[in-house]
Design a protein that fits this description.
- By secondary structure, this protein is α+β, with helices and mostly antiparallel strands.
- 44% of the residues lie in helices and 16% in strands.
- The two termini are 31 Å apart.
- It folds into 3 domains: 149 residues, Alpha-Beta Complex (Adenine-n6-DNA-methyltransferase TaqI, Chain A, domain 2), CATH 3.90.220; 88 residues, no CATH class; 133 residues, Adenine-n6-DNA-methyltransferase TaqI, Chain A, domain 2 (Alpha-Beta Complex).
- The longest helix is centred in the middle third of the chain and has 40 residues.
- Helix 3 crosses helix 4, helix 6 runs parallel beside helix 18 and helix 7 crosses helix 8.
- A 4-stranded antiparallel β-sheet has the order 2-9-6-7. Strands 3-5-4-8 form a 4-stranded mixed β-sheet. It has a 4-stranded antiparallel β-sheet with strand order 14-21-18-19.
- The relative contact order is 0.10.
């Protein structure tokens, strides 16, 4: 279905007018480079680095025009040449000539459909076939103008884009949701079990939030932390969004104080009232600290253990020794690159009969101790673990606890690996035994159910994204070729949410 034509016959392909480095200014009209287009296409753009003056932009725009909403920009130089981005919003900007191609004035082509086509394996192969240069690949204006393409009718393009865009929008929403869930889980963990905020709150409450009432024997280090915490609580108290709920929540505290097994010696009716809404949480924490030789001041009654005592860090296998025979059941191999990407590519396989400790599935904690050190909860399906990765498990402690503590120590591990790096940095098991963790009492540990809930939601969202990505990648070549009737897939997309 559709007709074949040269791309330049259905749209205008050009670049920009030359802007010299001396024309850059500190503030003004954003000036895009290839990196900006690529980052926007991948959804990871953060901020602009370069600008030109409004006067220079207006001079160029009045004579030659500038990109508009709905136009398509294509990165044209380097290893990432060929990344398309359809301009989403009305905004004034200009771009670097030779690095970006500008496609506009489409006739019979939906720009978003063209972007999907360019991103597809078929489109990328077509672009690769017309690139020039060996060390530095590049796409030229003439090459894109003369690119032979075959597209279905425009009405089909529009409907195909609606389907693909609906899936992509859901994937993007899920990614943002997952990021929020992970940030919330980390923030709760840090507040409760690293900064010990509820313990400081209880300590402050025990002296009616008057720092002068703190025992004179209390170490200066704790007094200073208590002072900072009180300032933070007062800041929260003054926040307008907190005020509305304080009065209603104050009554909850009185009931908690009366039923708590270990009553809190506190007067929460004193300032700051913000603590009233966290009464159930604070009732599970002590109001005193004790000194630990390794970590200093920790909540009274809590313990300290090294990371490798709260969880097992089980190494994967040198899987080249476990290649499956023809017809033998197999598993995809999970290596560092796949852990970072979030999915296995299936290019390498291992026997499915390897020992269970070297097999991971959705929900397992995986830690790469070599190369790019990272820790994540794997959501890419059943896989065989490579020798540069740990599968992290524990019979004594919940998943949220050893996952968050491994994540907490990750920056420290990355620094160790970087300092020791010659070819590829790594850490040793001895570094796990030097990474200390504070172990709460059982009543405080129970609160981790809130963190577990956030992690479980994150896992569900990520698994759904894996399914959506597979659906999109399956539909994409069939939709851009016109092979599928739109009605064939409409029902599937409607149930995405």
């Amino acid at each position: 279905m559709g007709s074949e034509f040269k791309l330049g016959h259905r749209c205008t392909v050009k670049s920009s007018k030359r802007i010299f480095a001396r024309e850059y200014v500190e503030h003004g009209i954003p000036f895009w480079r290839s990196k900006d287009v690529i980052d926007k296409a991948l959804g990871v753009f953060s901020s602009y680095d370069l600008y030109i003056s409004e006067e220079r932009f207006e001079e160029i725009d009045s004579k030659f025009g500038s990109p508009q909403k709905g136009d398509l920009l294509l990165s044209s130089v380097g290893n990432r040449a060929g990344q398309p981005y359809v301009i989403e919003e009305e905004e004034n900007f200009y771009f670097k000539d030779g690095n970006i191609l500008w496609l506009s004035e489409f006739n019979g082509i939906n720009p978003r459909f063209l972007a999907y086509w360019l991103k597809s394996d078929f489109g990328q192969n077509k672009l690769s076939s017309v690139m020039i240069g060996s060390a530095q690949k590049a796409l030229t204006i003439d090459a894109i103008r003369n690119l032979n393409v075959k597209f279905p009718p425009e009405y089909y393009q529009v409907n195909a884009v609606k389907i693909l865009l609906a899936i992509d929008n859901k994937i993007e929403l899920n990614q943002k949701t997952n990021q929020t869930l992970e940030q919330m889980a980390q923030a709760l963990f840090k507040s409760w079990f690293v900064d010990f905020d509820p313990v400081f709150d209880n300590l402050l409450a025990s002296v009616d939030f008057n720092l002068e009432n703190l025992e004179t024997s209390l170490p200066d280090e704790l007094k200073q932390k208590a002072q900072r915490r009180l300032a933070a609580l007062n800041s929260l108290e003054n926040a307008a969004e907190c005020k509305a709920s304080l009065i209603a929540l104050a009554h909850e505290l009185q009931a908690v104080e009366q039923t708590a097994e270990t009553p809190i010696k506190a007067n929460f009716n004193a300032t700051p009232n913000i603590l009233a809404q966290h009464a159930n949480t604070h009732a599970h924490f002590p109001n005193e600290f004790e000194h630990n030789e390794q970590l200093g001041w920790i909540p009274k009654g809590w313990e300290v253990k090294p990371l490798d005592e709260i969880a097992k860090y089980q190494n994967g296998l040198a899987l080249q020794k476990f290649r499956p025979e023809l017809g033998e059941e197999s598993l995809p191999v999970l290596k560092i690159a796949q852990l970072r990407a979030g999915f296995t590519d299936g290019k390498e396989l291992a026997k499915a009969s390897i020992k269970q400790s070297c097999i991971v599935d959705d929900g397992d904690v995986v830690f790469s101790w070599s190369g790019s050190l990272l820790v994540d909860i794997w959501c890419g399906g059943k896989a065989a673990l490579n020798q540069h990765l740990f599968k992290v498990t524990s019979e004594e402690f919940p998943k949220w606890f050893y996952y968050q503590y491994t994540l907490f120590h990750l920056e420290q591990f990355q620094k160790i690996a970087a300092d020791k790096a010659v070819t590829m940095g790594h850490i040793k098991r001895e570094h796990l035994s030097l990474a200390m963790c504070v172990i709460p009492k059982d009543e405080s540990m129970m609160l981790g159910g809130k963190i577990t809930s956030l992690i479980d939601q994150s896992i569900r969202v990520r698994i759904q994204n894996k399914t959506l990505t597979k659906l999109r990648d399956t539909l994409l070549p069939k939709l851009i070729s016109g092979e599928l009737q739109i009605s064939d897939v409409a029902t599937d997309v409607e149930v995405v949410d």
